From TrEMBL:
Protein name, as recorded: Glycerol-3-phosphate dehydrogenase subunit C
One Gene Ontology term, aspect cellular component: membrane
A Gene Ontology molecular function term of the record: 4 iron, 4 sulfur cluster binding
GO biological process: anaerobic respiration
Signal peptide: none
Keyword Metal-binding: yes
Length: 410
């Protein structure tokens, strides 16, 4: 028996949920891919039904490739079936006997590429130029990447580089920031805003250079063994911080979901559950402060009409939408929730050439909602959702923590 098959057999918790399926089809009516792409056979069949057979047989359900891991099906299931995780486990099994494409290798290993870029003088400038020339010459399209999109540009300095220059007041109250690849390399201003917000609340922010990418891009492209290595490393770091009584906080909802919940669902190890208890999403943490009466509400006037797209991976964490509640207290800010479903991007899914049309079709309702609104800016806690919103609407976007930093006058 191969390593992945053994691993999957040991994962009783996710696998056994397949037997709880009642065939109610709630997952099917909530699956955005199924609605956009009629040839997708949907979560009920691909997840629970085929899980029972595919982990013991060698054939595969072709339409498994359509699943974007948005997790809408998991939220809809009244029976607690880990549908999306079953899909990702089956995808990993598929790649045990099938080659990954060069495109999937590239989309899964953004952290590896960013390290190469950061190691070179003016690496970000040259990489951005190379990506722009590559796009105009059709190199990315030839690899299977959606030619309609631009790859996200590297920021001239990473968050970790910028962090070294931030002067913070010392404090006994500390959090460790988990930036994740997208904030570290593409949108470091989100991480800088987070530091300012925590400082305004009397916290000192630490970073841990030993963290890896959370592994989400690896899981969705079927590199389960590598994702497990990332999980082992990150979990051991989180547990070290837990021993010191210092929580780990992330601003990207796909990273926080992975650290808090998906490691445990995918790999079924007690240490992952234990580590997950020491991880918070940024606004989840801020709401805890608010509930204790410890949130600094000395907000300055910020005149902004905001449309809020709540990411699927935030909804899956089940703590509501604290950013909407907190930002609504800022003078001059109005927050309206888009409530228009999935944006269609789902991490690297919308970058795939063969998934581009599906991705845009899923996002259509959200795009129309944003275009018809008179909002100044769209806020969203997920970096790749923000890319999709910019691409589909040309709207200005930011992370809600950037608005809060403004409210503190930072
Ligand atoms: S994770 Fe999303 S795309 Fe995949 S089956 Fe579930 S609802 Fe559909
Ligand atoms: S929602 Fe849950 S119980 Fe209903 S069909 Fe889907 S997996 Fe089965």
């Amino acid at each position: 028996m191969s390593d992945i098959s053994k691993k999957i057999e040991e994962m009783e918790s996710a696998l056994s949920t397949a037997d709880h399926c009642l065939s109610c089809t709630s997952c099917m009516s909530s699956c955005p891919v199924m609605e956009a792409e009629k040839s997708y056979r949907g979560p009920k069949l691909v997840g629970p039904a085929h899980s029972r057979m595919h982990f013991s047989q060698d054939d595969f359900e072709d339409s498994l490739d359509f699943c974007s891991n948005c997790k809408s099906c998991d939220r809809a299931c009244p029976s607690g079936v880990a549908v999306s995780t079953l899909n990702m486990l089956q995808r990993a099994k598929y790649y045990e006997t099938h080659e990954h494409s060069q495109r999937d290798d590239m989309l899964a290993h953004g952290e590896r590429m960013a390290k190469l870029v950061r190691a070179l003088p003016f690496g970000a400038t040259f990489a951005n130029l190379g990506m722009s020339i590559g796009k105009s010459l059709g190199v990315f399209s030839a690899m299977g990447i959606a030619g309609e999109r631009s790859m996200p540009a590297y920021a001239s300095a990473s968050f970790m580089q910028l962090f070294k220059g931030i002067k913070q007041p010392k404090s006994d109250k500390k959090v460790v920031f988990f930036p994740g690849c997208f904030i570290n390399d593409n949108e470091p201003q989100v991480g800088v805003a987070f530091v300012k917000v925590m400082n305004a609340n009397g916290y000192e922010v630490l970073v841990d250079e030993k963290f890896n990418c959370c592994g989400s891009p690896l899981v969705v492209t079927g590199y389960l063994d590598e994702a497990h290595e990332h999980a082992d490393n990150n979990v051991s770091r989180i547990l070290e911080w837990k021993k010191k009584g210092i929580p780990v906080v992330a601003c990207c909802t796909s990273c926080s979901l992975m650290l808090k919940q998906e490691y445990h669902e995918l790999f079924n190890e007690e240490k992952m559950h234990e580590a997950g208890e020491n991880v918070y999403d940024a606004f989840e943490f801020l709401e805890i402060l608010a509930d204790k009466g410890q949130l600094n509400t000395n907000f300055k006037q910020v005149g902004e009409k905001l449309m809020y797209h709540v990411p699927c991976h935030l909804k899956s964490q089940g703590f509501g939408v604290p950013a909407a509640k907190i930002l609504a207290q800022v003078p001059g800010v109005t927050v309206e929730q888009a409530d228009a479903g999935c944006c269609g991007m789902s991490g690297n899914y919308g970058f795939k050439g063969d998934k581009y049309e599906i991705s845009m079709k899923i996002g259509e309702k959200l795009f129309n909602r944003i275009k018809e609104s008179a909002s100044d800016e769209v806020i969203c806690d997920c970096g790749t959702c923000r890319l999709q919103i910019q691409h589909g609407t040309q709207a200005k976007t930011c992370h809600p923590v950037e608005i809060l930093a403004k409210a503190y006058g930072k």
